[in-house]
Amino acid sequence: MARLMSRSTLEFDRVPARERALRPLGGRNRRRDESWFRDRAPAAWKHVDVVLVSCVAAVSVLGALMILSSTRGTDPDAYDTSFLRRQVLFIAAGVVGMVLITLVDYRRLRDFAWLPYVAALVSLVLVVAVGEEVRGTQAWFQIGAFQLQPAEFAKVAVILAVASLLAGREVPLRARWVAAALVLISVPVALIMLQPDLGTALVFVAIALGMLLMAGARARHIVVLVAVGVVGVVGVLNSDLLEDYQRDRLANFLQPNDPDDIADLQSSEYNSDQSLAAIASGSINGKGLFDGTQTRLGFVPEQHTDFIFTALGEELGFVGCATALALFAIICVRIWRTAQIAQDRLGMLICIGVLSMLVFQIFQNIGMTMGIMPITGITLPFMSYGGSSAIASWLAIGLVLNVHMRRFG
Amino acid sequence: MNPDRSHVPRLRMAGIAVVAVALFASLFARLYDLQVLGADSYQVQAEANRVREVQLPAPRGRILDRNGKVVVDNRVAVVVALERASFDALSEERQADLLNRLSWDLAANGHSISPDQMRLRVADQRYSRYAPVPLAIDVPESLKIYFEERAADYPAVVVERTALRAYPYGPLAAHILGYVGKINDAELAAQVGQTAKPYTLNDEIGKSGVEHTYEPWLRGTPGLRRIEVDAEGNPIRVISEQPPQAGDDLVLSIDVDLQALAEQKVQQGLADARARPNRDGSRNAGTRGAAVVMDPNNGQLLAMASYPSFDPNVFVDGVSDEEWAFLNDPANGTPLNNWAVQGMWAPGSTYKLFVGYAALMAGVMSPDTVFVDRGGYAIPGCTGAKCYRTNAGGSSYGRVTISRAITVSSDAYFYNVGAQFWLQRDRFGGEDGMQNLLRPWGIGDRTGVALTDESAGRVPTKAWKLDFCTKLDCDTGWRTGDNVNMAIGQGDVLVTPLQLATGYATFANGGTRYVPQVALRAEGYQSGQVSQQFDPQVAQQVDLPPEIREPLLQGLVGVPRSGTAVRAFAGFPLDDFPIAAKTGTAQVDNKADTAVFTAFGPAPAPRYQVSVFLEESGFGGTAAAPVARALFDVLSGVRPLQPAGPDGLPQGGADALAQDTGGAYD
Question: pTM higher than 0.95 for the full model?
Answer without folding.
Answer: no
